[in-house]
Each structure stands twice: as structure tokens, then as C-alpha cells.
Write a structure and sequence with these properties.
With 302 residues, the protein is an alpha/beta fold. The strands form two sheets. It has a five-stranded mixed beta sheet with strand order 4-5-6-7-8, sandwiched between helices. Helix 4 crosses helix 10. The radius of gyration is 18 Å and the shape is globular.
Length: 302
């Protein structure tokens, strides 16, 4: 399953998986675009079962209903790619639950979704969960006293925090999987500077940042298909390791072949991870079957 698979990275990830004969769920909030994306994938991957399922990650009721539908079918889930996201919304928006929109869509909804789908993931022989990160996570800080921008909102700070939270989640999910025998492989990947619709979905296609990106960014960017390669490596490669972070290996990790990417110190902070997990459980009401046993990622204490 790939969230946010109606275009950009998500579409390319879902397309490549289907071309590899995987059955794919295109999960997105826009029904018309979702059905169009699923149909387009089926056209070039006719031997795979590809379907659309409506999912709004900014709405916990939608996340719960989505997970209930999948659990009722009882089919194992081999791979979950938590890809959907919005970027740098100019004004602060909150969800029905009062969560800041970027934090809710990019991170908190995926936290709840993964927890609710854990029974299906555990039915698989070798399940994987992949988070889509961003170079911007290095600029982020988890502001526990201002998670939802209620004491001051800045578009880029909120975006960076949401992507940092996703990477903290990837690390902590691997720790807890190992401690509890869930058999999950949790890792993450970022696309570098990929040409997608993320600017249009956030700041808007006519914003100064989006215009500057289109005019000056071409030499440093890569296509959405190339940007999807690190996530695909994390998702299916036998060489992908638990708790690792992948991205382009070229100039400043903006483009190039898949390589290990650099995680910020806070993304690997065990104390931040534990606190964020506890806060996320409280906010979402999704309780995981977890014991408080601290396990290192890849054999290295964090």
C-alpha cells in the first residue's frame, strides 16, 4: 500500500511496485484522482491487482475507517509506504481534532495508520514499513510545547518538524519491532530534489518559491521517477537494512544513485523518540502492544 499515490513520488512508487507484479492499494483522499491513478497503473501493469481506497490522513475517523475495511478483508499486508504529504502551508490550518495540518498529514496520520494495520503487517512473512523523509528534516526540531503551531506558526518550521517526526518514527518503530518480535523491517528514504507537485500542494504553483524552483532548480533536481528510487530500494531490496535512511548519493543528496543518507542527531535521539511516541499515542488514541525495552538500531546505541 502506498499513501498519497495519485501523483509525484507516490504514483511512481505504486507504478514500479505494480510493474514488479505486486498487488497495490492506491490510498489517497481525492477519489477522482485516486481512481484515475489506479486505472493508469493498471493499464501498464495489467497482471497486478491495483485498486483505489479513500484515505484522508488528516482525519482520524477516515484513518480508522480505512484500517477497519482492510482488516475486515483479512489479507496480509507485505509493504506499507507512508508517503502522503503536504508542504509549507502558508497559513496555519488545523484538522477537526485540532492538529496542525502538516503534522497531522505527514506524520500523525501515518503513525495511527501503521498502528491500526499492525495486525495485517504481522500476518506477512517479511513486512516492511517505509517512511518518506526529506532533506528539510535536518532543519527541524520537535517542539513539544508547540506541536500544532498554537504558540506561533511558520510554514517551513512546521514542515521540517513533520518530516523529522516521520524519521524519528521510523527509528523508534524498528526499535519496538525488535523488542516485541513484530518482525517488521522499518526504514525510510528521501527523494532528494525531485520534480513533483509538492510545491503546488503547499505554497502554491504561483508562489515565489515554486517559481524559483522551476526556473533555477532544474540542474540540481531529478524526475519524480528517479526520486522514487530510494523509497523503492528501502521497500523491496534485499540489501535494505532495518532502521536505515536512503536517498540520492550525488551533490548534497539532491540527485543521483541510491545511497545511505544522513540523519540528523535529533532523528536518532532515543529520548525524543520515546517522548514523541507517547505523545502520539495520546493524540491518536492508537495503542500499540509494546513493552518498554530499549533496543539499539543496527546494533548501535542511540
Amino acid at each position: 500500500m502506498v499513501t498519497g499515490a495519485t501523483g509525484g513520488l507516490g504514483f511512481e512508487i505504486a507504478l514500479a511496485l505494480a510493474q514488479g507484479c505486486a498487488d497495490v492499494i492506491v490510498a489517497a483522499r481525492n477519489e477522482s484522482r485516486g481512481r484515475e491513478a489506479a486505472a493508469a497503473i493498471r493499464e501498464v501493469a495489467p497482471h497486478s491487482l491495483v485498486r483505489f481506497e479513500k484515505l484522508d490522513l488528516a482525519d482520524l475517523a477516515s484513518v480508522t475507517a480505512f484500517a477497519r475495511r482492510l482488516r475486515s478483508a483479512g489479507r496480509p499486508l507485505d509493504l506499507l509506504v507512508n508517503n502522503a504529504g503536504v508542504m509549507a502551508l502558508p497559513k496555519r490550518h488545523v484538522t477537526a481534532e485540532g492538529f496542525e495540518m502538516q503534522f497531522a498529514t505527514n506524520y500523525l496520520g501515518h503513525f495511527a495508520l501503521t498502528g491500526l494495520l499492525l495486525p495485517l503487517l504481522r500476518m506477512s512473512r517479511d513486512p516492511r514499513v517505509v517512511q518518506t523523509g526529506s532533506l528539510m528534516h535536518r532543519m527541524g526540531k520537535i517542539q513539544f510545547d508547540n506541536l500544532h503551531g498554537e504558540h506561533g506558526y511558520h510554514p517551513w518550521e512546521a514542515y521540517a518538524q513533520s518530516k523529522l517526526a516521520s524519521l524519528v518514527f521510523a527509528q523508534e518503530l524498528q526499535r519496538r519491532s525488535k523488542a516485541n518480535g513484530w518482525n517488521l523491517l522499518s526504514n525510510a528514504a528521501h527523494p532528494g530534489y525531485a520534480r513533483t507537485g509538492l510545491f503546488a500542494n503547499g505554497l502554491g504553483s504561483r508562489s515565489s518559491v515554486a517559481l524559483l524552483s522551476r526556473s533555477l532548480g532544474w540542474p540540481f533536481s531529478q524526475s519524480a521517477a528517479n526520486g522514487a528510487r530510494p523509497a523503492l530500494y528501502a521497500a523491496v531490496s534485499p540489501g535494505a537494512q532495518p532502521g536505515e535512511y536512503y536517498g540520492p548519493g550525488g551533490f548534497f543528496e539532491l540527485r543521483g544513485p541510491v545511497a545511505l543518507a544522513r540523519l540528523s542527531a535529533e532523528a536518532q535521539d532515543d529520548g525524543v523518540a520515546r517522548r514523541l511516541w507517547e505523545v502520539s499515542v495520546q493524540l491518536t488514541g492508537v495503542h500499540w502492544p509494546v513493552r518498554e525495552v530499549r533496543e539499539p538500531v543496527n546494533g548501535n546505541a542511540t
